[in-house]
Design goal:
This protein is of the alpha+beta class. Helix content is about 50%, strand content about 15%.
Length: about 110
């Protein structure tokens, strides 16, 4: 994963209004079926991470756990969860971060 390229794309996505930050906003976007990818900061608490991953698993939404602080540095927002709307931004982020659908198990944590 090219972190600098990913950070630039995340910043652009937020400025374009194609991202929802915070767990509640992300949950709404995921449940509506409009979330292209969910990004979770590595410093997120285990309970929040598990709930997010479970919700994404149920809806088939790709998810990635990023290194701690990546979302804050890229967006200037102190949020631990960022949902990207479906569309070209989400596709480019999937490519840059080389994100696949969730196939993780609890043992891989």
């Amino acid at each position: 994963m090219n972190e600098q390229k990913l950070a630039g794309m995340l910043g652009l996505t937020v400025r374009a209004g194609q991202a929802s930050a915070g767990m509640d906003a992300c949950r709404i976007l995921i449940k509506s079926g409009n979330c292209g990818v969910l990004l979770i900061d590595g410093a997120t608490r285990d309970n929040t991470r598990k709930k997010s991953e479970d919700l994404c698993r149920q809806t088939g939404t790709p998810v990635a756990v990023l290194p701690p602080g990546t979302i804050e540095r890229a967006t200037g927002k102190d949020n631990r969860v960022l949902a990207i709307r479906k569309g070209s931004f989400a596709e480019q982020i999937l490519q840059i971060a080389d994100i696949q659908q969730i196939h993780r198990t609890d043992k891989e944590r």
